[in-house]
Write a structure and sequence with these properties.
The structure holds two protein chains of two kinds.
Chain A: H1 4-18, H2 20-32, E1 35-36, H3 37-44, H4 48-60, E2 64-71, E3 80-87, H5 89-94, H6 98-109, H7 111-123, E4 125-127, H8 133-141, E5 145-147, E6 154-155, H9 161-167, H10 169-178, H11 182-190, H12 194-197, H13 207-221, H14 226-237, E7 243-246, H15 248-267, H16 270-282, E8 298-299, H17 300-309, H18 318-327, E9 331-333, E10 336-338, H19 341-361, H20 363-375, E11 379-380, H21 381-388, H22 392-404, E12 409-414, E13 422-427, H23 430-458, H24 460-464, H25 473-503
Parallel strand pairs in A: 2-6
Antiparallel strand pairs in A: 1-3, 2-3, 4-7, 5-7, 8-10, 9-10, 11-13, 12-13
Helix pairs in contact in A: 1-2, 1-23, 2-4, 6-7, 7-8, 13-14, 15-16, 15-19, 16-17, 16-18, 19-20, 20-21, 21-22, 23-25
Chain B: H1 2-13, H2 24-34, E1 40-41, H3 42-49, H4 53-65, E2 69-72, E3 82-85, H5 92-95, E4 100-101, E5 104-105, H6 107-124, E6 126-127, H7 129-138, H8 148-160, E7 165-168, E8 183-186, H9 206-209, H10 228-233
Antiparallel strand pairs in B: 1-3, 2-3, 4-5, 6-8, 7-8
Helix pairs in contact in B: 2-4, 6-8, 7-8
Classes of the chains: A alpha+beta, B mainly alpha.
């Protein structure tokens, strides 16, 4: 379940992209969880057509996944199949990262691929025929696009799990055991099989398809109307047709890699960054999930070969690479090296929280927080005071302040013997604190967006005046507005990177 | 025992300064001496000897006048009068350890040590605590007596400040003089570390330092639209 301000931010994003009606339906799903259509109508008090259209828009843009589930009939009626809708929180938040995704593709694959992806992101999904095939397959090869999941997979009610598992075969059975909620099961069932996910068949084209793709192209031009094609006209013909969408997972993985490499660059040096980048590049196709704990073990030869491919890496010697691996604390087993990515991400998380503590509570609090965060267990006030060189009374004051704002966890111990009968022990409870910090970051991201919209709204008249007429005071205001926008947007970009470190990586 | 108590009660009424028996002064002196380098608080003396406040005060004054006891500061509670026999030095629990002088944290001394350590490590790139200590001794950088332990404590606090980094020697490259696995301290070669804390994404916007973020809502009294911190932040003086 997403945090309070996570939901607020998601709703704000949906509202600014697709309007208030869609946002209302989306908020209903985010707050109340998965619901059937009838309940959404009930809760939102919108009329049924509005809800239906909103849902179609959300599905088109991968913000909602539908799935069918058998429900027991009431009053002895026969059980019936009900379609459920669930909001995909992560995908909604990804909408504000589209510029980043486009930048990655533009950098790696060029302008044409970027345009295709842009179309794909704007329209949610489309057929391969809509896109120019050659470049499309390059995007596919880089795994930046994937097949759309099934529109409405059927999920057996929980009590019949055994039977359902059998139906879906042995492989998915293993997956189901790990998954807990119905939502997670639905997502797993909707996802195309791994073998099919990136498979592109060029020979399946028929006349039918061509006709349809024309229709698609036309409807794509008018944008969101395409959903009608999807739902009504398309259902029969579409059965065999493959729909494609942007693969957010791959983008998140690329961004994760980038974050790790940048962290290595600032924390260690360029050499370490180049080697890590080479390792991640070489193992790219073998990674299966986003949050891998450590990189896939590679031999020295493979790493060196990959290092040589990059321009900066060409000047590195084998000795240099070896030192960089030592800096990265790569674990060496049987002559293969693996880098602990999880610890790099954790370091980045620590840095982010520590810098907030420094800003809010000052240098001495920063020292104490770092001490406790590194120790990972309870420490007594006096011990903290001694290690951080802060007067005992002052120490207690600072610790209390941090505790009051939920940055620290405190335990009292009352000893019966001795004069000093009460001891206070402190520690950083990372799990709950990280959740709290993430929610504040969502809140801050929402604030940045609101402020930006507000600033633009305030100076609306200036935006309408042609540039050559902007003189004197008007010119100043226009300059300020531009600067405000740059500051707010770049801050949001940076903040989003931090959000991803806590939520997606 | 009963005799001494008798004399004690007698003495209380008519104290004779030169009496050899257990006078309040002697009783207090014995008690204070028995506490060694921990000393004892005045109120505790009163309780343990069953003497009244004025008697204790007077006796303590007399003992202090004869240089048999001294008053010491207790770091745990500076307001409490603490006494100790003259031949003892206050324990670490009382003084707060080597970093305290007269009950106060010696911040100037700590700062000087920090600066020196930072210079030494900057010079060597990588050094162990022992190495820093030896350099200090050999070059007489610090006139006061210090221990390796103290240097270690200073270095650790500098690690907490993110001014230096703690690493284990790999025996390679710049570590060649240091045995493998020894804990050493270094300035960072990268851009971020060792140059003080990095400013995170959240900390660089007003919300990151905002004490009122909990009361802030999109359309509330405190809102990003009217926020004075934002106003200040976005006022470029154009």
């Amino acid at each position: 379940m997403a945090s309070q301000y996570g939901i607020k931010l998601a709703v704000y994003l949906v509202s600014s992209y697709f309007g208030d009606l869609v946002a209302k339906v989306c908020e209903c799903l985010l707050r109340r969880g998965t619901l059937p259509w009838r309940s959404i109508v009930q809760f939102t008090e919108l009329n049924p057509t509005q809800v239906k259209n909103s849902l179609l828009v959300l599905i088109q843009h991968n913000c909602v996944q539908a799935f069918a589930m058998e429900q027991e009939g009431v009053f002895g009626e026969a059980p019936k199949v009900v379609t459920q809708y669930m909001a995909l929180f992560d995908n909604i938040i990804h909408h504000m990262r589209f510029p980043k995704f486009l930048a990655i593709v533009s950098e790696e694959l060029g302008k044409e691929c970027e345009e295709i992806l842009e179309g794909l992101l704007q329209h949610g999904n489309c057929t391969a025929q809509d896109a120019l095939q050659k470049n499309f397959s390059r995007l596919l090869c880089a795994r930046y696009v994937e097949r759309c999941p099934a529109h409405e997979p059927f999920i057996a009610p929980p009590n019949e799990e055994g039977a359902a598992v059998k139906k879906r075969g042995a492989k998915s059975a293993k997956v189901t055991e790990e998954l807990q909620t119905i939502e997670q099961r639905a997502l797993a069932a909707a996802a195309p099989m791994e073998a099919l996910r990136f498979l592109f068949e060029t020979y399946t084209e028929t006349d039918d398809h061509e006709l349809e793709s024309e229709e698609n192209l036309r409807s794509m031009a008018v944008g969101q109307k395409r959903k009608h094609v999807d739902s009504e006209a398309g259902t029969n013909k579409r059965k065999k047709e493959v729909l494609w969408r942007a693969n957010f997972e791959e983008f998140v993985r690329r961004l994760r890699h980038k974050a790790c490499i940048e962290n290595a660059r600032t924390r260690l040096d360029d050499g370490a960054a180049i080697v890590l980048s080479a390792i991640l590049e070489a193992s790219r196709s073998s990674e299966t999930k986003v949050k891998v704990e450590s990189s896939i073990p590679l031999s020295m030869n493979t790493i060196f070969e990959e290092v040589m491919k990059s321009e900066d890496g060409r000047i590195m010697t084998l000795e240099h690479v070896r030192t960089a691996l030592a800096q990265l604390a790569a674990i060496c087993i049987d002559e293969t090296y693996s880098v602990d990515l999880k610890s790099i991400i954790e370091l980045a998380q620590n840095e982010e929280v520590e810098s907030i503590v420094l800003k809010r509570y000052g240098r001495e609090a920063y020292r104490m927080f770092r001490l406790l965060s590194k120790a990972g267990h309870l420490l007594e006030t006096d011990k903290i005071s001694d290690t951080t060189f802060v007067e005992k009374k002052e120490t207690a004051k600072i610790l209390f302040k941090l505790w009051k704002d939920d940055y620290l966890h405190m335990e009292k111990i009352v000893a019966s013997a001795g004069r000093q009968s009460q001891f206070l022990l402190w520690k950083v409870n990372k799990h709950s604190l990280w959740g709290h910090v993430l929610d504040e970051m969502y809140h801050a991201a929402l604030n940045l967006r609101i402020r930006n919209a507000h600033e633009q709204e305030q100076e609306k008249e200036i935006l309408q005046i042609p540039r050559e007429k902007l003189v004197g005071d008007l010119e100043k205001r226009s300059k300020r507005l531009r600067k405000v926008r740059i500051v707010l947007e770049s801050s949001l970009m940076r903040l989003d990177e931090a959000i991803m470190i806590f939520h997606d990586f | 025992m009963s005799r001494s108590q008798e004399t004690l009660s007698l003495k209380r009424k008519r104290p004779e300064p030169n009496a050899l028996a257990l006078t309040p002064e002697n009783a207090l002196l014995n008690l204070i001496k028995s506490k060694g380098d921990m000393g004892i608080w005045k109120a505790d003396m009163k309780r343990e000897t069953n003497l009244s406040e004025p008697v204790v005060t007077k006796a303590l004054k007399a003992l202090q006048g004869r240089n048999l006891i001294k008053e010491v500061v207790n770091i745990q509670n500076k307001g409490r009068k603490h006494y100790m026999a003259a031949e003892f030095e206050p324990s670490k629990e009382l003084t707060g350890g080597a970093w305290y002088t007269e009950g106060n944290l010696d911040k100037d001394f700590i700062d000087i040590l920090k600066k020196s350590c930072s210079k030494i490590i900057g010079k060597f790139k990588v050094a162990t605590a022992q190495g820093v200590y030896d350099f200090c001794k050999d070059n007489k950088i610090i006139s006061v007596d210090i221990t390796t332990q103290q240097i270690l404590e200073i270095l650790r606090s500098m690690v907490l400040d993110n001014e230096i980094v703690e690493v284990k020697s790999t025996g390679l490259g710049e570590f060649h003089k240091i045995p493998v696995g020894t804990v050493c301290y270094r300035t960072a070669s990268g851009m971020g570390l060792g140059q003080g804390p990095k400013v995170g994404a959240m900390a660089s916007i007003p919300c990151g330092a905002c004490p009122r973020i909990n009361q802030c809502t999109p359309d509330g009294i405190i809102s990003p639209k009217t926020c004075k911190y934002y106003q200040k932040w976005l006022d470029f003086g154009i």
